């Protein structure tokens, strides 16, 4: 059983009727419905809950955190960011979606600006599979077509990904590293680009499949905690 | 269920009493006994069987091939090498152990000489975990101690590993990249250094655990076969 | 001074008037003219010369080999392939252009099929810079536009590149890892996609700049030759 | 000409006679003397200067910053850390030495704790070259021996290095990724492990050579500044 917490900012769904129309149950609701399966225990949390719904207790009970945020990165409490990063370092999996790239949390874990090119023009995105041997693309064809999406373009100011899983083509002429993995401490991270709030991306079955695969891939490995600090010699030091 | 074929050269066990004493059932037998579990269907094959026991049928029915060879790399049939490489490209997992680094098959998949430094001096090896987030080290502590092993030292002439999982320390003063992953075509490869025929390395429970973990990690991902070749445009090409 | 040998198959320029029109001095002539500078000593070689013009003497005197081939990969002598690979392993730089991806030499160095999607449709290619910190993109803007090129698309069946420098966008809807580096033995390799024989790509100043930068980047590092083989212990082995 | 700024904390040399004896001109003085060459314009800066000697003007005029710090990471001004990281993102090279691994600046650029195992036991370190094709090891043999050093051991909690150049062997039984490169924004970073203040490591000619090579390798590439932000479509977006 993998304990999954889906965090969604859940601000635009409440403010903008056109977003609410696409996501009546919130982006978190659409993702939860889409990835549901027997070996996932799913809960959700949102920005306006106390401590953004990500208390010590919730995070301690979370194996994999899925994160979608956009319009109030600035208002996200620093203390909760520290808490999330600490849990990633301890082994919690983290899936950062779309505009989460610019969250303080993701930038802190990456060590870069995470800036990019962008455009909202209802344009076609095609995500090509770059690593066909990776469990994150199990069940996925050579590419995923999304008829309308926001464009994100290179240069994407991220560290070199540990693994590059998807590259996107955009109708307007750009490309983007759309699926990237990273390791930070004992934890595994997957960044997955698509999912602007005004498009039904999180109702797409292939997108569900990628996210569900990523939950399994980022889930923590069972090992004793890594020790850091002063270490006695394991061998005699001849002098 | 993962279909595992353990291939062992099985020459030295038959020729040298001191090796037979360590591995009365062959290295393949020791590994098979050590990694046995409900979700593995294990068979074995050896050098002197027709086609080295790796016929089209056997390989077609193999999800993960474990490979140990040493003294007759030169005598391994080229046609069977082609067959193995083709299956790796199609997605079969491959675990290459110890002196398999110098097999024609591994060198062909790597594109390098796979040369290294070596010494047989009954010396201590300690394999340090470099990537604590990787499923291959699930259940493994900070390092694995082997009281006596053959030394392999850097520079190890391999391509840069996709993932570096273990680095070995040797009493005589060398280090070695002991656990390395690679992707070739649709297939995943794990090279794992320890296992000289004269030491009881393949009776060690932690070594069993690493190999069993690697079986799961290298197992093929279920996807439609990747298409290569001429491709019609997916979008109108304006001129 | 870097000794550069530009190898061009030079078959299509002699057979097809439309290719000769684009490259009256051959592709090798266009590249030689384009990358000329004081610290490069450039020679050229072609398929129909004895030993394809790549004798022991020529390769021994070559720091960086630039390689363009297409229609007669099958006819390239195995012995010369061995010679090139040996020199790469010893440290010679290698720049493989466009259809050289399918040469026996490149496939041998990669360990994969190097298959891909392709289409000849006079379509636009845009190469986006993915690694702005890399010396290979010195002097290059955010992207290079090529008005007409052959399409190569993902999945490109190569090992994971050590460094990903360019990703191409194609008008027909595909993407491609267009600039990739690899290390093999002591040698550095750069694969650079553009350059179909019927388009004036090798007259483009930005393409010249990338190739010239790559010559500098792949040039050998001056070190004593790496030793491989039996190694005496550097430290006393306590037992 | 590469403008190099060597930053040294320069606290222990002033407090501890045994350190002053090893580094009478400070660690910065030893490094400056060791890497001196015609194409480097070297200046130094230390902790107790205003703004730690790393003013806007100094950093704007710095191509490569070499950084050694140890006992007062906590006292390093956050504003100067921001300034350094901004310059790295813009392209300034950064070489972080030894205990600089635990500086707030390095941890911020890495996104991890940068914790490790450590021991001060006057023990032998041997740095093995892992990437013989890399310019950072030009002129260096198969390994560098340091008769006495502080031990740093794995697991080193860093992101997966972009390139792994050295791995250290320690007499007491540990290994360590001692030479690692990273890219952050437009800038290149080299972490180099050896150099505890009580040992004469920075008087060693091979260590000088590695640092000088790294200065050249991390020096910025000349390109126009990368643009990030809203981007007009380069192609018509058919709907």
Characterise the protein shown here.
4 copies of one chain form a homotetramer. With 239 residues, the first copy, chain A, is α/β, with parallel strands linked by helices. Chain A has a single domain, classed as Rossmann fold, CATH 3.40.50.880. Chain A is 25% helix and 31% strand. Chain A has 7 helices and 10 strands. In chain A, strands 2-1-3-4-9-8-7-5-6 form a 9-stranded mixed β-sheet. In chain A, a hairpin with a 2-residue loop joins strand 8 and strand 9. The N and C termini of chain A lie far apart (52 Å). The model of chain A has no long low-confidence stretch (mean pLDDT 97). Chains in contact: A-B, A-C, A-D, B-C, B-D, C-D. Chains C and D meet through loops of C and loops of D.
């Amino acid at each position: 059983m993998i304990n999954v917490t889906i965090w969604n900012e859940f601000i635009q769904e409440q403010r903008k009727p056109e977003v609410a129309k696409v996501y009546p149950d919130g982006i978190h609701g659409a993702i939860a419905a889409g990835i549901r399966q027997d070996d996932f225990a799913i809960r959700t949390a949102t920005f306006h809950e106390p401590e953004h719904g990500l208390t010590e207790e919730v995070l301690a009970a979370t194996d994999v955190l899925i994160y979608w945020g956009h319009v109030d990165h600035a208002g996200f409490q620093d203390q909760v960011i520290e808490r999330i990063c600490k849990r990633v370092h301890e082994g919690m999996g983290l899936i950062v979606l779309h505009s989460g790239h610019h969250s303080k949390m993701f930038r802190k874990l990456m060590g870069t600006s995470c800036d990019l090119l962008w455009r909202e023009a209802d344009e076609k995105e095609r995500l090509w599979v770059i690593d066909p041997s990776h469990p994150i693309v199990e069940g996925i064809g050579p590419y995923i077509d999304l008829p309308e999406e926001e464009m994100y373009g290179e240069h994407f100011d991220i560290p070199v990904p540990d693994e590059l899983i998807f590259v996107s083509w955009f109708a307007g002429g750009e490309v983007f590293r759309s699926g990237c993995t990273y390791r930070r401490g004992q934890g595994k991270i997957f960044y997955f680009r698509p999912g602007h709030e005004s498009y039904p991306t999180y109702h797409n079955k292939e997108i569900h499949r990628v996210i569900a695969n990523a939950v399994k891939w980022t889930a923590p490995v069972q090992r004793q905690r890594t020790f850091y600090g002063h270490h006695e010699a394991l061998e005699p030091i001849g002098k």
